[in-house]
Specification:
Number of helices of chain A: 12
Strand order of the largest sheet of chain A: 5-2-1-9-21-20
Helix content of chain A: 25-40%
CATH topology of the largest domain in chain A: FAD/NAD(P)-binding domain
Oligomer: homodimer
Largest interface: A-B, 47 and 47 residues
Distance between the termini of chain A: 54 Å
Largest sheet of chain A: 6 strands, mixed
Radius of gyration of chain A: 23 Å
Strand content of chain A: 15-25%
Shape of chain A: elongated
CATH architecture of the largest domain in chain A: 3-Layer(bba) Sandwich
Structural class of chain A: alpha/beta
């Protein structure tokens, strides 16, 4: 039954299938380079997306191509690996195959790294009004809506309509929500400030609604407070401790009975794992994430790994592994190393431990909050650090150069490089 | 009846409405800067598009934002001018108003610069199979189809299917068709060459079909021939003297009875003016262009100008003004100068004369053909000239810098910066 080395396969190399080329899947694939096995990376898109900068696409600071790189391009030098663009429709654990829309892929080892989508907690109809920010198409949709709001306000005939069009609601005070709110406020007050004749974009209201008691709940309280102060300095109105109750036409209703007249909302209040748990028919947590063992495998199947936002794990040091890019990368590398050990029939790895190198969130053009163990930064030093780290982790020298150029330009001029309203009208 | 100066308007400034912010409309708007009149530029998009480089977006070389600039940003320093994003639905010549979806705009002078769309010569149903290349959404659609063809070929199960997926048909041998064919061939043979495992992108066929006897009919015969040779050196198959008869599912039928199995076609075989002639209820030529007087106005209405691809004119030197960017810019500036004269009740301008500074078309990464009067260039010198000219005319220093960077990178590495398959699946 065991398929632990090439010999036991009748001479063929072990097949590793990786589903998803986000941070987790791609890290796993790279860590398998050069090993005596065949790796297949399946993704329904042709690019790896650097999601932490997606909010900059949504607010016209960067172009999609600057934060995305073709998966085949990234992996083309890795001779044991092939890349497949296809949509997975199921996993057959008994037959050991992954089925896509066009093919089936047999595996000896499987790494599921399919990420997460927004979680509307049962109110999926809210997505149309308040899209989330996970994909490039989400970002260009939000960019379209935000920029269009200013154009429509310029054409509007009543003050009430102008005010409604220039009110933006961001739901969820985690890093994405905080970054979106800061970026929209800066877009209105800086980049667009002098471009209109009838409206004053500087009067736009940006309202950040967080159901919990404070912003950035995974950060320390002082950092939360610093973030709130910096956002308020940018002109963002923060409402904490109140959940959204409903989205109606042009009105956001809050749980305390108050309402906000707005046509443009963004959802960043929670994520739900991809349908991987259903495919695997395995146990999952409330957010749909697969409950994995300490070695990141299914408890009853040590050759099926689940990593990144799709996995639910309290690690060996009782740390609940968060759904962030560094965790996904660490899990992807762990899964790859674990497979390599297994093939060489070495002793298994000790259980996975998440190493938290720090928390970072940016707040507009030159402020951020950062925490590295006991070290806390805020304001410009944190922003500088944030910029360096994000540029460093961007894949591909070309993207790095383009982003540096655009950021330097934006920093010097407040200009935004990607103010395009594209896509069909809704 | 005359509205020739501010006095005759009861003290109000003359209103100039410009419809369309392409090369013609934008040149007119800029030439009206600082004059004692009120200028309104109406466009249904929020950006000016540098159409001559659109084929590079369609072939993953550039991002949309690199060849587009927000109209309000371009005009924001021009205090007598406002920019309106709206869709024009009609022109009332008697009441002197332009009607958009949300408003009406009274005018004393009107400049119609609404450009052109593809012309399928009565076969509009071909557009779905063979889209043209005029808008950003066209370019991202074509980019999606071209890149997807390689991905689907990699997943295909039969050789016939691979061959069909890797056959690209470009219809029309004018500059756009020639540039598209060259860019697709290079994409296949260079940028994608090492990225696939099962297919060899280098085996892709790129077929350029031109109904007339030779490519680039507006160029001299030697340049046509040079273009054909350079394209063939890139691996493009040129079929001249044969028109397309029909597009069926997966098959392009030619007028000589032959067929080409292909799933991916691009249309660049002709243009049809925008519906402006209908709005104006004026005489038009076979391509729907408004027949204008020698001063670019309607023959019976000397305050309504039509410029650029929307106008049909044989100029004072019996030159039929072509539908190219330099002609549109010259016409836009002429209309603005003519209005300025009219307001100051100076003698009218002499009739418009098109100055042809030359013809240019690029053929892949380092070849082109160029003609400037008696001077003819081809190969690398022509390409260098083409690059310099296009960068010079790109609006906005930021875009110039970005394009230079991307071209330098592509030149050094053959890499393409925008290999994204985005948009909903069709």
């Amino acid at each position: 039954m065991a398929v632990s080395g090439s010999k036991e396969n009748g001479g063929r190399l072990p097949e590793v299938v990786i589903i998803g080329a986000g941070f987790g899947g791609l890290s796993a694939a790279r860590a398998l380079a050069g090993l005596p096995l065949r790796v297949t990376v399946i993704d329904r898109r042709n690019y790896h997306l650097f999601q932490p900068l997606l909010y900059q696409v949504a607010t016209a600071g960067l172009s999609p191509a600057q934060i995305a790189a073709p998966i085949r391009r990234i992996l083309r030098g890795q001779k044991n690996t092939r890349s497949v663009m296809d949509r997975v429709v199921g996993i057959d654990r008994d037959r050991r195959v992954v089925t896509t829309e066009t093919q089936t892929f047999a595996f000896d080892y499987l790494i599921v790294a399919t990420g997460a989508r927004h979680n509307y907690y049962g109110n999926d109809q809210w997505e149309e009004t308040a899209p989330g920010l996970k994909k490039i198409d989400d970002a260009t949709l939000i960019r379209r809506r935000v920029l269009l709001a200013f154009e429509q306000a310029e054409n509007a005939t009543s003050d009430a309509e102008v005010q409604r069009l220039l009110t933006f609601v961001v739901v969820g005070g985690g890093p994405t929500g905080v970054e979106m709110a800061g970026a929209i406020a800066e877009l209105a007050r800086k980049a667009l400030a002098e471009d209109f004749r009838r409206i004053d974009p500087g009067t736009a209201r940006v309202i950040l609604v967080e159901a919990g008691p404070r912003l950035l709940p995974t950060f320390s309280e002082p950092s939360s407070l610093a973030a709130r102060k910096q956002l308020e300095a940018l002109g963002v109105e923060v409402i904490a401790g109140v959940a959204v109750a409903a989205f109606d036409a042009g009105v956001v209703k809050l749980a305390d009975g108050s309402t906000i007249e707005s046509n443009c909302a963004v959802w960043s209040a929670g994520v739900m794992a991809s349908p991987a748990a259903r495919w695997l028919n395995s146990n999952r947590d409330a957010a749909g994430r697969v409950l994995v063992s300490g070695t990141l495998t299914l408890p009853d199947d040590p050759r099926i790994y689940v990593v990144g936002d799709t996995a639910s794990l309290v690690d060996a040091r009782s740390v609940a592994v968060p759904g962030v890019a560094p965790a996904a990368k660490q899990m992807g590398r762990y899964a790859a190393r674990s497979i390599a050990r297994h093939i060489h029939t070495q002793s298994p790895l000790p259980p996975f431990r998440y190493r938290n190198y720090g928390n970072l969130a940016t707040l507009g053009r030159k402020a951020a909050v950062a925490e590295f163990g006991p070290l806390r930064l805020s304001g410009f030093p944190a922003w500088l650090l944030w910029s360096l780290i994000h540029i460093y982790f961007l894949i591909g020298h070309r993207n790095r150069l383009g982003v540096i150029l655009d950021w330097a330009w934006a920093y010097a001029t407040y200009d935004r490089g990607a103010r395009l309203i594209t896509g069909s009208s809704e």
